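Sequence design from tokenized structure. All designs in this work follow the same two-part layout: the structure record, then the generated sequence. An example of the structure record is given first.
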């Protein structure tokens, strides 16, 4: 993705779960770093999505993303899928770990993310 973030980005090759010492809160200087692959994201396109659907086959995970212009309630108009990512289950498990770690770090810095939109929206 082309977006810049204050958090350290998680690269494809770095999607392994944290080292045991990291999980226990050891100082970063004590961790052994694995070499990271070089990644060229100069041709990557970035798209915003607030909707995703995850399905799968016995061999692959399929992640569809889209922009839902009707985020409250059940959408009246169809949601048009504009991006589809097809990955194997090994990559899906590494992605799951990387996303979990990223959300965990965000919540530690900014507070718990409420996924129920009804609890986030103030009613007048």
């Amino acid at each position: 993705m082309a977006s810049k973030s204050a958090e350290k980005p998680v690269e494809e090759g770095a999607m392994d779960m944290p080292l045991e010492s990291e999980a226990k809160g050891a100082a970063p200087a004590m961790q052994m770093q694995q070499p990271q692959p070089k990644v060229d994201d100069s041709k990557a396109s970035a798209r915003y999505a607030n909707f995703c659907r995850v399905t799968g086959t016995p061999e692959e995970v399929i992640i569809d993303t889209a922009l839902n212009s009707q985020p409250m309630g059940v959408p009246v108009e169809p949601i048009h899928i504009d991006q589809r990512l097809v990955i194997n289950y090994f990559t899906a498990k590494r992605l799951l770990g990387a996303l979990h770690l990223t959300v965990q770090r965000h919540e530690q810095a900014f507070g718990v993310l409420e996924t129920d939109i009804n609890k986030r929206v103030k009613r007048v």
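The chain has a mean pLDDT of 81. We note this feature because it recurs in several other targets discussed in the main text.
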